[in-house]
């Protein structure tokens, strides 16, 4: 009976650990800077991978199908890790990559960088106006380029389900052990 009780407590601990320690990466979102201005954002990366500058803005023509669109801009993107500059890139164009249709939002992508896990500080300096981004109220963030999106979703769902089942089985087992004892 003591062994079963310890196994149930272990299942509860494993379930809590799985559910609490699972974290997604976090990215700040900041307004697109006007000419001569700069913005800073922080990104907490949980995994190594390819990341890009992402510009989000309302669609120009909500009824039109997704087409090709390129924004001309003049930005300097500097990425710092532990206070040291690891990347500095001049961005001249942003390319339309995707659209969140029913919400009327378009996503433009900039250059891609391969970054390791960790906390990064990113500074974006504008050297010229980007009229479309300023007029449409664009926002900047960092985004991970994902491959095998379905497999990642299924794996994350499976891990979450294992955490819930482990927690539930541990509680049910612990309660049944206590009821048998009484």
Characterization of this structure:
The protein is an alpha+beta fold and 182 residues long. It has 2 domains: 1-24 and 148-182; 32-145, Jelly Rolls. It is 32% helix and 44% strand. Strands 1-3-8-5-6-7-4-9-2 form a 9-stranded antiparallel sheet, with no helix packed on it. Helix 1 packs antiparallel against helix 3. It is elongated and about 75 Å long. The two termini are 13 Å apart. The mean pLDDT is 84.
Instruction: State the order of secondary-structure elements, H for helix, E for strand.
Output: HEEEEEEEEHEH
Task: Indicate how many domains the architecture comprises.
Answer: 2
Helix content: 25-40%
Number of helices: 3
Strand fraction equals 35-45%
What's the main sheet like?
9 strands, antiparallel
| CATH fold group of the largest domain | Jelly Rolls
Class from helix and strand fractions: alpha+beta
């Amino acid at each position: 009976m003591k062994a079963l009780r310890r196994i149930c407590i272990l299942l509860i601990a494993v379930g809590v650990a799985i559910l609490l320690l699972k974290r997604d990466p976090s990215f700040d979102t900041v307004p697109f800077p006007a000419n001569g201005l700069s913005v800073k954002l922080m990104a907490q990366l949980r995994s190594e991978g390819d990341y890009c500058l992402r510009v989000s803005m309302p669609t120009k023509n909500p009824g039109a199908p997704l087409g090709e669109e390129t924004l001309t801009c003049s930005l300097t993107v500097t990425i710092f890790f532990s206070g040291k500059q690891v990347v500095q890139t001049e961005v001249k164009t942003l390319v339309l990559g995707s659209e969140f249709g029913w919400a009327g939002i378009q996503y433009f992508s900039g250059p891609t960088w391969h970054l390791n896990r960790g906390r990064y500080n990113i500074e974006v300096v504008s050297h010229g106006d980007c009229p479309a981004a300023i007029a449409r109220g664009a926002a900047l963030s960092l985004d991970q380029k994902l491959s095998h999106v379905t497999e990642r979703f299924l794996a994350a769902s499976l891990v979450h389900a294992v955490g819930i089942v482990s927690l539930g089985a541990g509680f049910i087992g612990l309660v049944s052990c206590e009821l048998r004892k009484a």
